[in-house]
């Protein structure tokens, strides 16, 4: 398996410091992009080749390009954080790289070597390190590696050409005015993924499939939609783009990975962070009726969602066709906030990195 070196071809006209600083003052999420991107090609019989860092710009695709018709597409999301000493570090890029390989395998795409994935992310962050927000807040540089099938033709088969790309976008605090609990609509008639499908792959089709239910949730006055399993329609799985956690006093639990859930990096990290803080942490199945009953009895004290973008999002209200209920009185719970702050402290370099999660770039 070839591992190409990234050739640097930086822009001769990057944004000025003034223009960049104006963006960093209020970056939002996914609205602005850095000066460069990294691309690596894969061709059948040749493997990975032509790794380049080039100016950020449009991709040119033939109308018959495979990805536009058969959706061979996968992506990842990870963040780079400014550290107290001014250096930059990314959070667990090796885990993202391994999940990217799994997604590629599931969609019949070539598996990018872990070292190439990390090298590509490192090259982009190093080149555009001035885009990484200052240390101190929750701001970060969000990296979006993705791969698409680029073979031209309408034959239904795995493509023989692919393009791997990494782009980056400065991200502001997910909750600019403070952490706000979200409302959840429980979708009991639509499913996100099925056993044996692509639910555990990070592919755009999963997100496209969630948009109708998300629109329905919005019509119900809710921020997010939660899904049940596709077989019994009783077991809680995940939100459209985040994993779920349930807090039972000193114990936190998250739904077991069944093959139809995405193995979230934040999800995995929080299992360890919770144990480091002295909580019991386990993976198990939670039914929707159990969720409601345990909330009403007081046994279930908090619920939160987690993912790369928001880190931890408290759940305040849950609605289903037969009623609704509040979690933690509709407020962010104590355990939720303790876990959130503990993980953010590791990412921002203000707490000990006990598990070697931060990949330092200098």
Automatic annotation (TrEMBL):
One of its GO terms (molecular function) is branched-chain-amino-acid transaminase activity. The keyword Amino-acid biosynthesis applies. Its cofactor is pyridoxal 5'-phosphate. Pathway: Amino-acid biosynthesis; L-isoleucine biosynthesis; L-isoleucine from 2-oxobutanoate: step 4/4; Amino-acid biosynthesis; L-valine biosynthesis; L-valine from pyruvate: step 4/4; Amino-acid biosynthesis; L-leucine biosynthesis; L-leucine from 3-methyl-2-oxobutanoate: step 4/4. Its EC number is 2.6.1.42. It comes from the Bacteria. GO terms for biological process: amino acid biosynthetic process; branched-chain amino acid biosynthetic process. NCBIfam families: ilvE_II, PRK13357.1. This is Branched-chain-amino-acid aminotransferase. It comes from Streptomyces boluensis.
């Amino acid at each position: 398996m070839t591992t190409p070196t990234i050739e640097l071809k930086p822009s001769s006209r990057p944004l000025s410091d003034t223009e960049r600083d104006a963006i960093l003052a209020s970056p939002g999420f996914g609205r602005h992009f850095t000066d460069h991107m990294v691309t690596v090609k894969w061709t059948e019989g040749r493997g990975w080749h032509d790794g380049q860092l080039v100016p950020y710009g449009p991709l040119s695709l033939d109308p018959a390009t495979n990805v536009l018709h058969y959706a061979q597409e996968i992506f990842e999301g990870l963040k780079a954080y400014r550290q107290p000493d001014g250096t930059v570090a990314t959070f667990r890029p090796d885990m993202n790289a391994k999940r990217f390989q799994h997604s590629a395998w599931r969609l019949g795409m070539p598996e990018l070597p872990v070292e190439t994935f990390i090298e590509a992310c490192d090259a982009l962050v190093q080149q555009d390190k001035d885009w990484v927000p200052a240390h101190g807040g929750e701001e970060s540089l969000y990296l979006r590696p993705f791969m698409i099938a680029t073979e031209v033709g309408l034959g239904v088969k795995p493509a023989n050409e692919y393009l791997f790309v990494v782009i980056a976008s400065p991200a502001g605090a997910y909750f600019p005015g403070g952490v706000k609990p979200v409302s959840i609509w429980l979708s009991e008639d639509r499913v996100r993924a099925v056993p044996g499908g692509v639910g555990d792959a990070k592919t755009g089709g999963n997100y496209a499939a969630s948009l109708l239910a998300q629109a329905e949730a919005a019509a119900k006055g809710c921020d997010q939609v939660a899904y049940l399993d596709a077989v019994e329609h009783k077991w809680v799985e995940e939100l459209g783009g985040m994993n779920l956690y349930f807090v039972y006093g000193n114990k936190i639990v998250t739904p077991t990975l069944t093959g139809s859930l995405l193995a979230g990096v934040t999800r995995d990290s929080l299992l360890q962070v919770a144990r480091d803080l002295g909580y019991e942490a386990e993976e198990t199945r939670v039914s929707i009726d159990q969720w409601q009953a345990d909330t009403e009895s007081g046994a279930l004290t908090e619920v939160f969602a987690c993912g790369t973008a928001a880190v931890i999002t408290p759940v305040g209200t849950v609605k289903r066709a037969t009623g609704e209920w509040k979690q933690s009185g509709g407020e962010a719970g104590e355990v939720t906030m303790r876990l959130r702050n503990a993980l953010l402290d590791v990412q921002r370099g203000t707490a000990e990195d006990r598990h070697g999660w931060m990949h330092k770039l200098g």
